[in-house]
Every structure is written in structure tokens, then in C-alpha cells.
Amino acid sequence: MTYTGRVFRVIYVGAEALVAEGEFLGYEAVFKLRLRKPYRVPELDREIIRRRTLAEARLLLALRELGVKVPAVLYVDPVEGLIVMERVRGRTILSVAGSLSRGELCSAMSKAGSELAKMHRSGIAHGDVTTANMVLTESGDVYLVDLGLAKHVEDVEDLAVDLHLLIRVLESSHYSAKDEMFKCFLSGYREILGEEIARTILEKVREIRLRGRYVEERRVRK
Amino acid sequence: MLVLGIESTAHTFGVGVVSDEPRILADARYSYTPKVGGIHPREAADSFISNAPRVLSEALKSAGISMESVDAVAVALGPGLGPCLRVGATVARALAAYYGKPLVPVNHAVAHIEVGKVLTGARDPLVVYISGGNTVIAALYGGRYRVFGETLDIALGNFMDTLARELGIAPPYVVEGVHALDRCAEGGKYIEMPYVVKGQDTSYSGLLTAALRAYRDGAKLEDVCFSAREVAYSSLVEVAERGLSQLGKEEVLLVGGVAASRYLVEKFEAMARHRGVKLYVTPPKYAVDNGVMIAWTGLLLYKHGVTVEPEKAYIKQRWRLDSVDIYW
Fold first, then answer.
1. Cβ separation of B323 and A214 shorter than 8 Å?
2. Is 0.80 surpassed by the pTM of this model?
């Protein structure tokens, strides 16, 4: 290894990557290592890992330049599938939602909305907008993490899918506060994007919901 | 309780009889095989019409029963090809009306899942339903099979058949249980192909175009087959793995005709070992379309009071898996 870093603890093993915390050149760091898959031929596996690692690192950099609160990239090794990034100290909104006051939760959601709006303003969809991927820091900032599914998009529909996903998460994980939380989220979102663009995207969200396959109130055509 | 089930959604006209022990009493089938090209819906339907009476009497004979002793008639009303569905629906409506038997409407996709569950013993699996017309990752939540991922364009089986046909290696598509694409992939090397996974969804139409273009541009046939197959199968396994991770399921169940592919099963085995989950594969004989799965699902539905009046038993070509209430 050509870098100086130490891994302390594995935080999470997902379908695609292993996430660990540690230290890198004196910084508190998060190591995201994409895992090789035994079911893919090695050439294909290497190519997928290389391409996705590079894409994620590039997006993180682009978003930093745009002033979106995402972790800073410290090191990238596309061949190994490794991204080392700044460790954002804080708690996920998912884990603290129950213990925050109404005002604090509203402010956090509104900030998350602003950050997502900054991404959307630049034509980047997050791809996995959940409250587990929103980190509230001690200074009260909200960071969006896990950009593994983020991408540049051309269609407003792809942006709307982000909000659609968030609504579904709020319904399942925060059902008692979902309306309030989404309202707060939207206030921050609207503030950055402007009323008109936000409305266009929200109309699309409604369309997706009605078209959707998970919607309880959906009418089955007779 | 005895239920007779009729399948006729695509290429197979099947009549099955099951009892609630559970036991399979009859499994009669007629399969339409096109001489050239893919399924021609009208030709398939015509051949169903000429073979239906024979298949029906064969089923009753091998079960050793007459229509009088049947408790209910189940029929796959969709999803599928309109002309084909109409044949099964007509036969079922006629039987139900003439013999005064309750008619049970069955969703073909639900039937694939239920027969897979009862035959393999899977309890709460992530379901991977792969066939000529379907590529769906689903799981039972809140009384319905919720779809967590699916193909954005063509189905995996459709992709395999079309590619094999365009490459000139089919029909026949499946010989001795091995698909023409799997056969031709032997000894092939990997050349780059577009690998598409969008969140939980897969897509195969771009891969089809790219594979055909590579072949036209001079790539070796076995390399094209191998690479296209690797990419298609791998992306499906990846999406399934995501589903497992997200839902925290500990079982995977493969259902549908493509579940008979040994190479695909090997990939799923590798993933299951890696993740420490249990893999269940529907036996090939019942993974493809058949009347038994319709009869079995009809039996489950009938026990929960689901029936339809013959004059209201319309076919539904686009009957979605996740619009069916599951009561068990």
C-alpha cells in the first residue's frame, strides 16, 4: 500500500461495499471498499468495480466544488475499489429523529432539503435519499453521504425519484412524523431551487406515485 | 379438496389437478414450438384449441377422476398473450358453468411463486421470477408480493431467446434442458459489454443490441454468447443481492422457466454462499409453465373464498403481480 492509513472497525457490509472507519494521514477517515463478487467473471468484475469507484469519487469531488456538504475525498484506488473519505462526525437523522425537538428535527430536515436541492440544481441525483444517509453534525450542519448510486441525469424524472424514495422512507421509518418532516425538507429544498422548478419536480413525484407499483391507493384498472 | 387448474398464458396449454395434502394428481401439457421465429400468438392459440380437449381428458384420466369430483376450476387469467389466455379462459368458463363448479381466477406470476414455495419448502424468500416474459425481484410484505426490482425493458428469457435467434443458433431454444445461449457460450472469452444496473432494476435491450453489433463486427460467436450471458446473469444476481441486503431476507427462491439454467443457478449459489443465505430452486419441471401451479394457487385462493362469476372472468394481459392480495 502506498498510503498511510489504518482501519479500526468495520461499520457496515452492504451488497456492494464494505464500510469501515479508521485513520488516514492523521485524518479521521471512512474507508469504502467495493467487494469482488464470486459470481462475476474476473474481467467484468474488475471493470465494474473500477468504473463505479471512479464515478463515485468524481461525483464527490464535483459536489464539493459546488458547495454541497458531502465528505471530502482523501484517496482513491479504482483498481482496488477503494475510496478513503473524510469521516463526518455526527449522527444520522434516522437515529436521532426520535430524540430531537420538533424544531430541531424540522431544521435538520430543511437543511437536508437544501443540500439535495444543490445537487439537483447541478443535475445530479443522489439515488439513495434516506434518513440513514443524512448526517447531522454537532454544529448543526447536515451532510449527505453514500453517493454510491448518485449520477448525472438529464431527465427531471430522475430527480423526482429521489423525492419519491424519501417519501417512501419517511412512510416506513418515520410514519408518525412523516408529513411534518417532508414539509420541513421541502422548505429547504424550495428555498434553493425556487418555487417554479420545485413545483415541476413535485408534479413529477406525484405522477411517479400514481404510476407506482407500491402505492396503496392505486386503482387497479378493471 | 380437489382443484383443476388451467394454464394457457403463452406457449404451454397445461391442465393440472392437485389436492390439499398437498399432492399432484395430474400434470398434462401441450407445448407449442414455433418452427421459425418466436411465439406467434394466434398460431399458438390455434394449436391450443386443437389440443385442449385431449390435454383435459388426459389430466382427468391420469388423476383417475371425473369432473364431478372436482371442487373448483382454477384458470390463469393473466398476465400473458391475449389470444392464448382466451383459450384457457374459455375452457375454464365452460367447465365451471356446465358442471356448476366455482371458478377461481389465478395470477400466473403468483402461481409460479406459490408452486416454487410448496415444492422447495422456502418460507419467507426473496423471490427471483425469471422467464420469457418476466424478470422480477419480489417479496411478500403486507399481504402482497411487492416488486423490489424488475427489468426496465425486455425480460431475461426474452433477451436470451432473441439473441439466440438473431445469432442463428435457435430455434430450438432449449435442448435437453440447456438453452442455446448457454450451449454456445462454452469455451467463450469475455469481451466488453454494457452492464446495466439502475438501483434495483436491470435492463437487457442495450445489451442485446451491443452483442449483435459485436457479432456483426467480427467477434467470435462463442465470445459473444459467453459475454452477453455473463453480463445478463451477473446483473440479475447483483440486483437480487441488493434486495437481500435491503430487506434482510435469508432465503432466495428462483422461479420461472429461466431458473432451469444451470449456469444461472451456479451464479446464485456463489452469491448465496458468499452472503450466507439459503438458495431454493424450483425443480425445472415445475419452473416452466404448467397447469399444476395454477391448480395449487387456485386451491389456496379457493380456501380463502376467492372466486369469480364465469361471465365476469375477463382475461387480464397486464395483470401485475403486486396487485394481487395474498391471504396466506
1. no
2. yes
